[in-house]
Design brief:
443 residues, Aspartate Aminotransferase, domain 2, 15 helices, binds 4'-deoxy-4'-aminopyridoxal-5'-phosphate
């Protein structure tokens, strides 16, 4: 371990590193040493962290060093880590037993909160992950329309089910090729991939396959190629195109749900999808997904209808308790506070980059933000992918060494939480000023 990594821990640089030991043992157990790939820090060329505690806006590594955290559990931690009210709700639920294998009161309670916030979710199902929820929504769209093709956007991520784990081939609106080994080519070929923010490409795909497309699935604010805000009118065009063709519009709000406003992106932009996919915040940090939408569509789900979907631990009471406690704390004024914090962060980052002469494009929707190391904000994943990954790796490393933890990839969001206050912003911006200087020094 290098001296900067040993950092402010209080641990002497010569003491044995618990983190290094755990990392070695993890590498002997898990592919790449991790249980989800981005945790391996490969794209920033650093050794992965082992984290053993979170509190408010901070996380602690296994050697006792604390970091100001912008990974935010990859989205759920909108209240910060280990919020006492959420802990208490989970503790209380635990005393009633874990999953009991039947409907419980906490599922009903959370379901009603979700529907009150997103009225388009007339009926819903809870799952245990966003992947399951997105996969099930697509199956429902196919079952309800009797059509096979699905349109997704380049750079959009909807979990790792086979049909959604695809990349665009060459050309604008092409049938997709597998984005992972193990995905059958015919499965991938049922997905059409088009550029985000390009409604003409969407229209062209529908013109090429009239009456054959079951649904468009879209992150209404794309956040898995870095943050890409929807261009004005883009989501409305998707609504028009799908309605005209008899296809369904699925909003994957796993990241945006309860993040960009109380009603998610559909509330923020005023566009109503047929089906919505949720995850992350709705589970308050526990493993949860949900999908839902129009009652007539949800009536196709078993046992009401012929589209099968199930889950042993779906609607788990501890997860429902965490989700309910979290949503109850997210009053409208909390979103105003998040907006103010995030706007100040964005402005400060712009100023710091300008002062060091670093060309950046910063995108932000509410408390989701990306600093792209390229001149100007990208509109599409294709543009985002031209960002300078080496510059981001230097920035990430300089921030980490100074105690600020960002997502270990250029193409992810910073997740600002309600636990990030003025002091945390001051610390972040002072650190960013030196990190931008380090980027320039490394050119
Ligand atoms: N959809 C979106 C938009 C996501 O960002 C993610 C995960 N980051 C998923 C679906 C999959 O969710 P999970 O990791 O819970 O399976």
């Amino acid at each position: 371990m290098t001296a900067p990594e040993a950092g402010r821990a209080g641990r002497s640089p010569t003491a044995p590193s618990r983190m290094a030991d755990l990392r070695t043992r993890a590498e002997d157990l898990f592919p790449g040493g991790v249980n989800s790939p981005v945790r391996a820090f490969r794209s920033v060329g650093r050794a992965p962290l082992v984290l053993d505690k979170g509190a408010g806006p901070r996380v602690r590594d296994a050697d006792g060093r604390w970091y100001l955290d912008y990974i935010g559990s990859w989205g759920p931690a909108i209240l910060g880590h280990a919020h006492p009210t959420v802990i208490e709700a989970v503790r209380e639920a635990a005393f009633d037993g874990f999953a009991l294998g039947a409907t419980g009161p906490r599922e009903v309670e959370l379901g009603e909160l979700v529907r009150a916030a997103m009225p388009s979710m007339e009926r819903m199902r809870f799952t245990s992950s966003g992947t399951e929820a997105a996969m099930s929504a697509v199956r429902l769209a196919r079952g309800a329309t009797g059509r096979d093709l699905v349109v997704k956007f380049n750079g959009g991520y909807h979990g790792h089910s086979d049909g959604l784990l695809v990349e665009a081939g060459s050309g604008v609106a092409t049938l997709a090729i597998p984005g992972s080994a193990g995905v059958p080519t015919p499965t991938a070929a049922a997905t059409i991939v088009v550029p985000y923010n390009d409604p003409d490409a969407v229209a062209a795909a529908f013109a090429a396959h009239p009456g054959r497309i079951a649904a468009i699935i879209v992150e209404p604010v794309a956040a898995n190629a870095g943050v890409l805000p929807p261009a004005p009118g883009f989501l409305d065009r998707l609504r028009e195109i799908t309605t005209a063709d008899g296809a369904l519009l699925i909003f994957d709000e796993v990241i945006t749900g309860f993040r960009v406003g109380p009603g998610g992106a559909q509330g923020r932009y005023g566009v109503t999808p047929d089906l919505t996919v949720l995850g992350k915040i709705v589970g308050g940090g526990m493993p949860v997904g949900a999908y839902g939408g129009r009652a007539d569509l949800m009536a196709h789900i078993a046992p009401s209808g012929p589209v099968y979907q199930a889950g042993t631990l779906s609607g788990h009471p501890l997860a429902m308790a965490a989700g309910t406690a979290t949503l109850r704390l997210l009053s409208a004024d909390r979103y105003d506070a998040l907006e103010a914090t995030s706007a100040r962060l964005e402005a400060g980052l712009r100023a710091a980059a300008a002062a060091s002469g670093t060309p950046v494009g910063i995108t932000r929707v509410g408390s989701l933000l990306t600093v792209f190391f390229r001149a100007g904000a990208p509109a599409t994943a294709e543009e985002a992918f031209t960002a300078d990954r080496a510059a981001y790796a230097r920035f990430f490393g300089a921030m980490l060494d100074a105690g600020v933890l960002l997502a270990p990839s250029q193409f992810e969001a910073w997740f600002v939480s309600l636990a990030h206050g003025e002091a945390e912003l001051d610390e972040t911006l002072a650190t960013a000023a030196t990190a931008f200087a380090a980027v320039e020094a490394g050119r």
